[in-house]
User: Fold DUF4194 domain-containing protein from Corynebacterium occultum.
Amino acid sequence: MPDFFAPFDDDNLEFDIEDGADSAALGNEEHARHPLDWTGVASGDRSTFTPEQRLAIRGLLHGPFISGAQDKDMYHEVLRSVGAFRAFLGNLMVELVIDEVGEIAYLRDWELLPEGAPSLFRRSPLTHIQTAIVLNLRKKLAHTISGERTIVDANHVFEETLPYQQNRGTDRSKQRTDFDSAWKSLTSRGVVKSTPLAGRWEVSPVLASVFSAEEIAAVHQSYSEMLEQMTPMDTTVVDELMESDDE
Assistant:
């Protein structure tokens, strides 16, 4: 499974961006609604970006992504400034990725970095159970009608991914603890977001952009083969579990 994207690593930048930038401040709607005047804020400032563009580029650098559903003004600023941003980010060998259907914008290294060029992104390989959850959520996204939100029940996802925890034993309490830990980690990365309804979560469309259908199919095949070795369970049952939608 490819490493899952993580927030931008500020420490590797050659220009000054404070560590741990406040994403809420970056997305403040008041900034987007009213033109900003930062005249004299920084001595020797030679930037050609407007204040709104600077907030948007900082939002991208802060990561892990900008969502049109959560930060409409900042996302629209990215769309308006896409040419200028890509020219700027090209100096860092960083690509701006925009999914206009899912209204998601995020950054990643060039696919082929020159020899000796360090990555500017921290990467965290997915654990076994995290991968199983991502497989489940990615398939649910694929079955969602375009333009609609993908809402899942965490308990249903737990039940559907149980076959992939057989190598962890049969202690259901331990399996639930492992699942909850993995779910919390994916929540912190913006993969799922809580909703006003208890136990119901919205799946970020960024999964559809980060993991291609081909990658998901390859990993699903690998996991199915693993299950065949672990248990005589009919793999069609597993396919149905992984592909089922929440009602």
Q: What stands out?
A: The chain has two domains: 10-109, 128-243.
